[in-house]
Amino acid sequence: MARIGIIGSEGRMGRALVEAIANAGEVHAGGIDMGGDPLALAKACDVLVDFSSPKALEANLDAACQAQVPFVVGTTGLEERHHFLIDNAALKVPVLQTGNFSLGVNMLAWLVREAAGRLGDDWDIEVVETHHRMKVDAPSGTALLLGEAAASGRGISLSDHSERGRDGITGARGRGNIGFAALRGGSVAGDHTVHFLTDNERIAFAHHAENRGIFAKGAVRAAGWLIGQKAGRYSMTEVLGL
Length: 242
Fold this sequence. Notes:
Blueprint: E1 3-7, H1 12-23, E2 27-32, H2 38-43, E3 47-50, H3 57-67, E4 71-73, H4 80-89, E5 94-97, H5 103-118, E6 124-131, H6 141-154, E7 162-163, E8 178-184, E9 190-198, E10 201-209, H7 213-226, E11 232-234, H8 236-240
Parallel strand pairs: 1-2, 1-3, 3-4, 4-5, 5-11, 6-8, 7-8
Antiparallel strand pairs: 6-9, 9-10
Helix pairs in contact: 1-7, 3-4, 5-6
């Protein structure tokens, strides 16, 4: 049985993780929140799962490296510097980071990558996501995951081919760009649709999350898989064997 430590244990995902760990027959090795000691927790577990906040990521990664334990990053709202920190930590311990742990979403990302790679850039790609009113970041980590999948399929950089926050006179849509739209309201756990649109026809790939338990279940599976892996940066693609 894997001893899994939770950073951000009192948040929505933290509470869901406790239940998912028990359902999977693993051991909840403890949890911390703001002000807690990540190093002490790291020394008490086989793998750390972090669903806290971007500002805490550096200290949490340092703790994992000092204790030499695998680290699962579930925190969203990451910026370029956070990915630099993850890359650096992955030189010392196995690190798995994704914008979404749902098995269905990761299969969706694979389908989006395949479609983007086979359809020409005359097919416009738009990622539309809906989340609960309390979500603080946009686009969501999952929307960016799907956008990166589309960009990967086309062999382009998402940062150089992204359109967001259209308002006013924005001009025509750029050929080959990937657009994002974010909706917020109610208690929606997460809905994502990737639209492929060209002249006279459209394709839509969609995923609807009905309960946060699916993300926790996937995170526990990822944590168990990460134990025993070599130092490096991983994603759910490896966990699912895609």
